[in-house]
Specification:
By secondary structure, the chain is α+β, with helices and mostly antiparallel strands. It is about 25% helix and about 25% strand. It starts with a helix and ends with a helix. The C terminus is likely disordered.
Length: about 280
């Protein structure tokens, strides 16, 4: 009898261990499932969070830095975390030349409290890299795009001109950085003044020559777009729209009768002209 009781107790003990293991496994599976669901919900909520673009430091900026466009970058920040003192990228033109009153680490937003405008605006030459020149462009040379430009924008300039009886359009200058946009208007109140670009000397010469001999068109490009536009081999309108080129005229030989031109004969290979003349009785 005692043996049966011991045997039964051992079975109950084993069943209890198995039950505890099963219960622990179920609890662990439930906990993992809850954790995964919470993580998914957090990621979905983060994806739904509205973001805003703000100006941040492109690298570590010490106190006293006089801000130029190369010092700043644009980063998306959740709207709820964006400080009311942070700066919108559209305000870049009004910030250039300001002096930092506090250090700003790489990637941190630049705040209005970091800036002081007591110092005079920097000279235009300070915005040029070594070897560059400031190229002044009339707003009329850039078409309607000039009214939308801001300091720091990048533009491409194309030129259309006639060459060997063909009307061509080719890229002239690419990725030209806008330094300043004139605020003065013309006498009729319809212009925006001159645009100043940072250009290499060779680029400036190409622009001056193109302005004298062709028609200029400007296009705005994204500040992070550094790709070069390749010059197409088909740059005239007829080729671009797929029209067949005009057939070349067949060369001919002018035949003189006495003192007048009477007809034009098709060119024939050398060696046959004399024979044909004798056969037709013509000189």
């Amino acid at each position: 009898m005692k043996a049966l009781i011991l045997h039964g107790a051992q079975r109950l003990r084993r069943l209890g261990v198995y039950g505890l293991a099963l219960t622990a496994g179920l609890v662990s599976a439930w906990a993992v499932r809850e954790h995964v669901q919470q993580r998914v919900q957090a990621l979905e909520a983060q994806a739904r969070t509205p973001v805003v673009e703000r100006l941040v430091a492109a690298y570590d900026l010490p106190v006293g830095t006089r801000l130029e466009d190369m010092h700043l970058a644009v980063r998306e920040i959740p709207a709820q975390w964006a400080s009311s003192a942070s700066l919108d990228p559209l305000d870049l033109g009004s910030l250039l030349g300001a002096t930092l009153a506090a250090e700003v680490a790489h990637g941190e937003p630049v705040l209005k409290t970091h800036l002081t405008f007591t110092a005079p605006a920097p000279a235009l030459a300070s915005r040029l890299r070594s070897g560059q020149r400031a190229l002044t462009v009339a707003s009329g040379d850039l078409g309607g795009l000039a009214e939308m430009l801001r300091a720091g924008d990048l533009i491409d300039i194309y030129v259309s001109f006639s060459h060997r009886q063909r009307e061509l359009t080719v890229p002239l200058l690419q990725g030209m950085r806008v330094l300043t946009v004139g605020a003065e208007t013309d006498p009729d109140g319809g212009g925006v003044g001159n645009i100043t670009l940072a250009a290499e000397p060779e680029e400036a010469v190409r622009f001056i020559a193109a302005r004298q001999a062709g028609t200029l068109t400007a296009m705005l490009r994204h500040r992070d777009d550094a790709a070069a536009v390749k010059a197409s081999t088909q740059t005239d309108l007829a080729s671009l729209v797929g029209l067949a080129p005009e057939p070349k005229p067949i060369p001919g030989v002018t035949i003189l009768y006495g003192d007048r031109v009477d007809a034009q004969a098709l060119a024939v290979p050398a060696g046959h002209a004399a024979t044909n003349g004798f056969e037709t009785g013509q000189p």
